[in-house]
């Protein structure tokens, strides 16, 4: 099984704007690289029933894709979430079965049916399995050879065990299990608990960069803030590592995709599915020859594409900048013989990376000048006036302005060439998270909104001393007290005490690896960047900070900023294994918490702080998010002289 998913639905970043001939072209192209299966999401899923970009009703497209699969000898898989509210209700079951039969009866070809336990869906396995038994009878009435596959996505620990128990009973309709995002046990663990002769397929998410199955490791928060969860994201090295890490645990794959932002990744997986020893460089050269007509210059084009992945492996303002090198590589390349949407999407990503680098450098410089002004001698009013001027007196240079215009032009081309929706108001994207990062090219990349708001609050304070004290805290927000420590969790360059855990190359889904993330907000909302970014871990893996060299004669205070997405999950804090803050819900977003540690805990000079969630959770396993941590000392009173 070497397949990829098509979702003709509003949520998608591209496919809802396609016609059947465009899907047919994609079938040809991906078959050339070894794909043998097309998976199509049923017309009813966790999405709107229609899209303003549709060229045809969803059912007509789903049926048309089945006919095309039959025409070219490709396997056709139906991805069918069970979306009714309650399948213990016989009326809802009857309605579901009628709806299911109405669909499969119309499809010319169905080779397999994949039903997720969750994401989307919410049905307990002991209810889901009897429903699938009924649907199997209907399916085989029209497609006698079709196989049926089910996943445990989204299940809690309890439901996972029920799932394993039911699979072990080997129901006659069950042909295999597939493993996808939002599974609380990893693929190797799940494979080990499923009967050895029952095949397991991989359902990897190749479209998303964060809040997802395979986050970009240690991603600069500026990229996360602007390029977002679903950008143009060639990751040939990362997905080669991922494919090989899990190849022994599955019998094939079905790629979860949301359109064409992951076009390169589809080809990488197809090539590896055909021959797992294929190198990323070889695949990128073949990509450049086949899709761009690069001919003898295929290596140069391949190197430039690889550079886009390397851009994200360093900090955006790193001295030895891969972003500038990659941008120069693209500038040196002639326009390829086939300069269509694939070429323009690569140019868009390259330009976006370089634009962010220039803009962040400029805006960070103005922020740093403002902070220096707030810390300088003078009255509070003088200091705030100088800081305000520093924030206001910054203007884009010629290169930044030119790239801004270039990005807007490329976005228009990509919409008209392939239906890629890089903006909500201009091109009909369903929401920002679905690849519409053109809408964030003007978002602030510094803390000016927060600083301006804080200075306004300072002006309202009753006396000069209070104003001066508040300005000092603002100016030195991230500076720890003497002998203290600070971590801006979520910023890989500023979280020195974070215990990262297992290297991501050994754990691509990061079950045992700390994850850097960012909230779905912008700095225009008045948050600091250090609040938007956070670190988290999945399910029962604790989030840990490790300190050494502490003063054994000091009593330490911990100050925490809880911030991130709008999760309401209780967490407890442990210090060297002792609970120092019991399970507690975040009461605001952001919320600051401060408490003292018993001196006996740090007497050894070392400290491990850990945040743990309640065990057994299902869903994505996410939400235990911490944004900032200060550890500050205070001397213990010396013993009295006797």
Notes on the structure:
This protein has 19 helices and 18 strands. It has helices at residues 20-32, 58-72, 90-106, 125-142, 157-168, 187-193, 221-226, 236-246, 263-274, 280-292, 298-311, 322-332, 341-375, 380-392, 398-418, 424-427, 448-459, 464-475, 529-532, and strands spanning 2-6, 37-41, 75-79, 112-115, 147-150, 176-179, 200-202, 253-255, 485-488, 515-518, 533-536, 543-547, 554-562, 571-575, 578-584, 591-596, 607-613, 628-635. Helix 3 runs parallel beside helix 4, helix 10 crosses helix 11 and helix 14 (380-392) runs antiparallel to helix 17. The longest helix is centred in the middle third of the chain and has 35 residues, at 341-375. It is globular, with a radius of gyration of 27 Å.
């Amino acid at each position: 099984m070497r397949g990829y998913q098509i979702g003709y639905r509003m949520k998608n970043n591209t496919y809802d704007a396609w016609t059947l001939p465009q899907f047919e072209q994609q079938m040809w192209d991906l078959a050339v690289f070894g794909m043998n299966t097309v998976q199509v999401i049923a017309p009813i899923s966790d999405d709107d029933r229609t899209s303003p970009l549709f060229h045809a009703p969803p059912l007509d497209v789903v049926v048309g894709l089945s006919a095309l699969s039959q025409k070219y000898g490709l396997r056709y898989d139906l991805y069918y979430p069970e979306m009714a509210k309650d399948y213990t209700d016989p009326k809802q079951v009857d309605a579901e079965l009628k709806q299911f039969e109405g669909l499969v009866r119309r499809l010319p070809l169905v080779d397999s049916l994949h039903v997720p336990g969750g994401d989307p869906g919410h049905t307990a396995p002991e209810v889901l399995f009897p429903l699938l038994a009924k649907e199997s009878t209907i399916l085989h009435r029209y497609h006698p050879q079709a196989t049926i596959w089910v996943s445990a996505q989204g299940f809690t620990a309890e439901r996972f065990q029920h799932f394993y128990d039911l699979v072990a009973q080997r129901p006659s309709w069950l042909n295999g299990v597939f493993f996808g995002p939002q599974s609380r046990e990893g693929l190797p663990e799940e494979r080990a608990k499923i009967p050895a002769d029952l095949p397991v397929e991989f359902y990897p998410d190749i479209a998303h960069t964060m809040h997802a199955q395979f986050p970009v490791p240690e991603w600069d928060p500026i990229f996360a803030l602007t390029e977002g969860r679903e950008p143009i994201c060639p990751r040939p090295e990362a997905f080669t590592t991922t494919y090989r890490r899990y190849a022994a645990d599955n019998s094939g794959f079905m790629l979860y995709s949301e359109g064409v932002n992951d076009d390169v990744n589809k080809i990488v997986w197809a090539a590896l599915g055909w021959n797992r020893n294929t190198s990323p460089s070889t695949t990128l050269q073949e990509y450049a020859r086949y899709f761009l007509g690069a001919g003898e210059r295929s290596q140069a084009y391949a190197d430039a594409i690889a550079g886009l992945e390397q851009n994200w492996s360093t900090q955006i303002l790193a001295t030895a900048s891969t972003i500038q090198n990659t941008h120069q590589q693209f500038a040196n390349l002639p326009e390829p013989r086939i300069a269509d949407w694939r070429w323009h999407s690569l140019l868009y990503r390259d330009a976006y990376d370089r634009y962010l680098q220039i803009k962040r450098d400029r805006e960070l410089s103005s922020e740093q000048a403002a902070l220096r002004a707030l810390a300088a001698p003078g009255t509070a009013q003088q200091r705030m006036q100088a800081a305000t001027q520093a924030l206001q007196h910054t203007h884009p240079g010629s290169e930044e302005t030119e790239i801004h215009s270039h990005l807007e032009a490329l976005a228009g081309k990509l919409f008209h060439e392939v239906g890629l929706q890089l903006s909500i108001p201009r091109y009909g994207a369903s929401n920002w998270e679905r690849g519409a990062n053109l809408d964030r090219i003007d978002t602030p990349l510094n803390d000016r909104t927060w600083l301006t708001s804080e200075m306004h609050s300072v002006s309202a304070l009753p006396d000069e001393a209070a104003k001066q004290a508040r300005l000092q805290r603002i100016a030195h927000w991230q500076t720890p007290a003497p002998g203290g420590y600070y971590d801006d969790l979520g910023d890989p360059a500023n979280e020195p005490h974070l215990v990262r855990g297992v290297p991501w190359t050994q754990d691509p889904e990061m079950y045992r690896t700390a994850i850097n993330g960012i909230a779905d907000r912008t700095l225009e909302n008045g948050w600091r960047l250090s609040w938007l970014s956070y670190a988290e871990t999945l399910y029962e893996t604790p989030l840990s900070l490790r300190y050494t060299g502490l003063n054994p004669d000091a009593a330490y205070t911990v100050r925490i900023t809880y911030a991130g997405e709008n999760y309401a999950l209780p967490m407890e804090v442990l210090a060297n294994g002792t609970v120092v803050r019991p399970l507690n819900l975040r009461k605001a977003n952001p919320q600051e918490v401060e408490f003292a540690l018993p001196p006996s805990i740090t007497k050894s000079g070392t400290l491990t702080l850990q945040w743990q969630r309640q065990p057994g959770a299902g869903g994505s396993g996410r939400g235990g998010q911490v944004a900032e941590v200060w550890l500050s000392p205070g001397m213990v009173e010396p013993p009295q002289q006797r």
